[in-house]
Design brief:
The chain has about 35 residues and is mainly α. About 90% of the residues lie in helices and about 0% in strands. The protein has one domain. The chain starts with a helix and ends with a helix.
C-alpha cells in the first residue's frame, strides 16, 4: 500500500514538476528568439 502510494506520488510529482518546467521555459520567449 505504502509503496504504491509513494510510486503514484512520485509519478504525479514528476508530471507536476515537468509542467512547471515547461511553463517556466515557455514563459520567457524573448531569450529564446
Amino acid at each position: 500500500m505504502e509503496l504504491r502510494f509513494t510510486l503514484c506520488t512520485l509519478i504525479e510529482g514528476n508530471m507536476f514538476w515537468n509542467m512547471v518546467a515547461i511553463s517556466l521555459t515557455c514563459r520567457p520567449p524573448r531569450q529564446s528568439y
